[in-house]
Amino acid sequence: MGYAGDRISMRQSKRPEMSRWVKWPTLDRVGRPGVYVLAHLEKVPRGPADHTVAEVVYIGESSRPLHVRWLAFNRSAISGKKSHSGGRSYNAQFKKPHSTLHVAWLHIDEGNKSLLRIKTKYWERRLLLEFAEKRCFEGTTRESLLPCCNRQ
After folding, report:
1. Angle at the Cα of 69 (from 118 to 61), degrees rounded to 5?
2. If you write DSSP's letter for every residue of 106-137 in order, what string do you get?
3. Half-sphere exposure (Cβ direction) of 33: Cα atoms closer than 13 Å
4. 34: left (phi over 0), alpha (psi -120 to 50) or beta
5. 79-137: per-residue pLDDT in tens?
6. What are the pLDDT digits (tens) for 58-72?
7. Partners of 40 in the β-ladder
8. Under 8 Å between Cβ of 64 and 141
């Protein structure tokens, strides 16, 4: 007979479903926390977004409603001012949001509020890892393993 810690550590984290790509600035009131992915897409694929495509420029998370974080990103992407570090990186690289910018997201189950921040960080890091692993598999140089606006 095991102890409770065994049951918790043995549980698998079920991947939340990724949304489809939506043109930026959607800034819709997506009122749940989660992880979001920004990409420059000339042609938008159908179905759930793929966070490992080379066009991804940023992967971020929020334990607050996603639209609140997107507003901060947009402010920084336009102005370069402090509000969102990814938005500032975006501004430094692209100056303003491109017409090809799209966002996709996955919601994180809010069940246990004490675990919410840990869950959002986990899924952000997992998506970043999967993005980087694909770059390694493709033979990409070490400098470009992360999306360009995630580098600091």
Report:
1. 30
2. EE---SSHHHHHHHHHHHHHHHHHHHHHHHHH
3. 20
4. left
5. 878 878 888 888 888 988 888 999 999 998 777 778 899 999 999 999 999 999 998 87
6. 999 998 888 888 888
7. 101
8. no
Helix (H) / strand (E) element for 52: namely none
Q: Are strands 56-62 and 34-40 parallel, antiparallel or unpaired?
A: antiparallel
CB 106 within 8 A of CB 119: no
Give the three-class secondary structure for 145: coil
Rounded CA-CA distance 25/61 in Å is 17
- According to DSSP, the β-strands at 22-23 and 101-107 are antiparallel
Q: Which two tokens stand for residue 3?
A: 């102890």
**Tokens, residue 132:** 């980087």
Identify the DSSP state of 138. Answer: T
Q: Which residues pair with 107 in a beta bridge?
A: 34
Q: Say if residues 80 and 97 touch (Cβ distance below 8 Å).
A: no
Instruction: Output DSSP code: residue 42.
Output: S
d(CA 33, CA 117): 9
